[in-house]
Design brief:
The protein is mainly α and 520 residues long. Helices cover 63% and strands 5% of the residues. The protein has a five-stranded mixed sheet, sandwiched between helices. A hairpin with a 2-residue loop joins strand 4 and strand 5.
């Protein structure tokens, strides 16, 4: 039996406990390291930070700018932290860090109630060393909170199902769910799965009266919590047409038995192992994931249903285009993914016995190596758009009459640094988004013809950023004189002399664009 029986003892040997806490400790160090690197704000963070640092308690319920969506609880905590500790990157990322760090011991408590033996340690290692999860623990977005509240709700549900007659356990489950709905949108899937498992228990268990009462209690409290949050906050965001269009590729094709849907479902296990989990080569791990899924399905316990049913609800919501099943929006599913992987590993180790134990351990190691490799790469290069040193360099090397042009995607983080560092008295021109009309990029910088010192500031992480930058620089190097430059990871600045720039031929853009396309 790979999954722990609901009545099995919760004792662990001292060695098992020490190994688990060693994994937790190393995972916390990993998360803290990425936090202390203190990388610059990048585009996605700058989008939402703009709506946090300018927000007071009186306008807390006003919509977030830049087509952003986040739970009200997350926004409120961020506002409180910035008002108490300031608007530095460290302050803005403190709450996500706490969410990421707290997830690790909570997940251990969950895994040891659901899995046996070294399956617990494997599942714990997946969560602790997931490079994606560690990254989002130092990112000003609600995704680390999604994982924390999903883990907390699953733990409360499994603890409740161990003794459904306990009123105290019912209150913990009810309270955890009511709070989670204000801090995590996908917590609704976990709570929906828990409610469905309670309904199955009501139909299956002999004491139907107790389970029916408990189901009514959680339905009332969770329903009221969800409806109030939806009414005063979520309703503004679910009608955002930009968000629906942006995530159009992430919805399960309908009908779900069509060829496109079956292809989408086939790729989904590999996709979730890559992102949000972090396996760069997910082949072996995918085998464990599928085996673990079968183990949970065969178990048929209420705890197993609690783990599995959120996946079904997620696919249903994706099929009706209510929630995208993709990438960072699935960070909340990390504890479920890890439990399934752990169950698959546990079955392999149990089936191998002592005779083939070495071979089984090698397979487990092969499955884990891609995750550890990705974690190492994340630790070695955690940067995305290092705009802060670029801004400082331009400030130290600029002159009062310099012209500053900012690529349209760089302006959001730049505004943050200008607002935060009051000594930056910059007058700059922010470009517009011309990804569908490259000619307009050249028109924007061509207006500075005759200026002796023109700065151009770029960020490149966004789609098309590297191409747009290459186009402009190729044209500027041909017609202007480059005086200086700084190039960091994902961000850069260039100083040009436009004073001797010749007239631009009408056909020049076609040539430059062709050269950029060929080079890329």
């Amino acid at each position: 039996m790979i999954l722990r029986d609901e009545t099995a003892s919760m004792e662990r040997s001292k060695l098992d406990v020490r190994l688990a806490w060693l994994i937790i400790g190393l995972g916390i160090i990993f998360h803290l390291y990425l936090y202390t690197v203190n990388r610059s704000l990048w585009l996605d963070e700058a989008y939402i930070v703009e709506g946090i640092i300018t927000r007071s308690w009186s306008d807390l319920l006003t919509p977030l700018p830049n087509n952003q969506a986040a739970p009200l609880g997350f926004v409120a905590v961020e506002v409180a932290v910035t008002q108490a500790l300031g608007t530095s990157e460290y302050a803005l990322r403190l709450f996500p860090l706490l969410c990421g760090v707290l997830t690790l011991p909570l997940f251990y408590l969950l895994a040891r109630r659901v899995l046996d033996g070294y399956a617990t340690h494997f599942a714990l290692a997946v969560v602790a060393f997931s490079p994606r999860f560690a990254y989002y623990s130092s990112d000003v977005k609600p995704y680390a909170g999604d994982a924390l509240f999903a883990t907390a709700c699953l733990l409360a549900a499994v603890w409740y199902f161990d003794n459904p007659r306990s009123f105290r356990r019912l209150m913990v489950l009810t309270g955890a769910g009511a709070v989670a709905l204000w801090f995590s949108y996908p917590a609704a899937f976990v709570l929906g799965g828990t409610g469905a498992a309670m309904l199955v228990g009501w139909l299956r268990l002999p004491d139907r009266r107790t389970m029916g009462r408990d189901l009514l209690v959680v339905a009332v409290f969770w329903g009221v919590s969800f409806l109030v949050h939806y009414r005063i906050w979520m309703a503004i965001q679910v009608t955002d047409e930009f968000l629906v269009t942006f995530w159009d590729h992430a919805f399960l094709p309908f009908p779900p038995w069509s060829g496109a849907a079956l292809k989408w479902l086939f790729h989904l296990p590999f996709q979730v192992l890559i992102n949000p989990t972090g396996f760069v080569y997910p082949g072996v791990a995918c085998g464990f994931l599928i085996v673990g899924l079968l183990v949970f399905v065969r178990s048929r316990s209420l705890s197993s249903l609690t783990v599995l049913l959120p996946v079904g609800l997620l696919l249903l919501a994706s099929a009706i285009e209510k929630y995208p099943a993709w990438g960072r929006l699935l960070v909340f599913a990390l504890p479920v993914i890890a439990l399934l992987l752990g169950a698959g590993v546990g079955l392999l180790l149990r089936a191998a016995g002592t005779r083939h134990r070495l071979l089984a351990v090698c397979m487990v190691g092969i499955a884990m190596l891609p995750l550890l490799y990705a974690a190492g790469k994340q630790a070695a290069n955690p940067f995305r758009e290092e705009l802060r040193p670029v801004v400082a360099w331009v400030q130290n090397n600029s002159e009062p009459d310099d012209v500053i042009y900012v690529y349209h995607r760089a302006q959001y983080a730049l505004r943050y640094y200008i607002e935060r560092d009051r000594h930056l008295d910059w007058r700059y021109v922010a470009g517009d988004d011309h990804r569908e009309d490259l000619q307009s990029y050249l028109d924007e910088v061509d207006r500075f013809r005759g200026e002796e010192r023109v700065w151009l500031i770029f960020t490149e992480d966004a789609i098309g950023g590297a191409r747009d930058k290459a186009l402009l620089l190729l044209w500027l190097d041909r017609h202007g004189v480059r005086l200086d430059a700084i190039e960091m990871v994902g961000a850069s600045a260039y100083l040009y002399d436009f004073s001797r720039m010749p007239p631009r031929p009408e056909k020049d853009l076609e040539t430059v664009g062709a050269n950029v396309d060929n080079s890329s």
